[in-house]
């Protein structure tokens, strides 16, 4: 017979006073985990490619402790790819460029107390120049679809096969067609990206912002907006994070970030703060790439 979990209710401020969570007045950063996957890829260009991928996941830290989430809340899992040695699959010939037109998808399984479910993370490739004499790492940013881990307990996130759709181009923008790759790994290889602890607890705090989106970009700036809902206390404003670092605090549901580097990929997140300084969990990440100068 399955154990029954009795939910209990806490507030962010009471957690801070009790010392249950360190620094909980601010949003908890996602716990970073990583696993190395060695893939054998069949490509549309002909050659079979041996590819190494570091899969880096940002597990939720929204509950009472690392890698945790309240079972009434959603679990947001960021994931990045660090792909090594794509040259054999591409018509390099002196150098080609990959950017956000190139994509990847990563299959995964979530194994928990309510059984096994499948999911798939979608990625966009960061701008990368690949030459025939350079062992360049190709990086991609993405996320798994929102998960609801409603049965309290531990959930293992295990990664599986990888597919690529690469669209190389010359430096002048001339497209070189699409190269696809279907990649499988040794089933005996460790595939555990991390474990999420779903807790029977209700944490009272502001509602996290939703639907972050890009309004406009220039080679060195971006304007973002998002949706937000009030809770018990009035909202003071919103903390904006870029690539894991705090950028600014704004009072409106929009921000313009300047001084950025052209042709670079970023992930932005938003946090609501109320007049008592209580903060929400972080929004879902928004991935975008600035245009070339």
Percent helix, as a range, is: under 10%
Query: Domains counted in the coordinates: how many?
Result: 2
Order of helices and strands: EHEEEEEEEEEEEEEEEEEEEE
How many distinct beta strands?
21
Strand content: over 45%
CA gyration radius, whole angstroms: 21 Å
Describe the structure.
With 293 residues, the chain is an all-beta fold. It folds into 2 domains: 34-55 and 73-192; 205-289, Immunoglobulins (Immunoglobulin-like, Sandwich). It has 1 helix and 21 strands. The protein has one helix spanning 12-18, and strands spanning 8-11, 31-43, 48-59, 68-70, 78-84, 96-98, 103-112, 115-125, 128-130, 137-143, 153-166, 179-185, 192-199, 201-204, 210-218, 221-227, 235-242, 245-250, 254-257, 265-274, 286-289. It has an 8-stranded antiparallel β-barrel with strand order 2-3-5-10-8-7-11-12. The longest helix is centred in the first third of the chain and has 7 residues, at 12-18. The chain is flat, with a radius of gyration of 21 Å. One of its GO terms (biological process) is polysaccharide catabolic process.
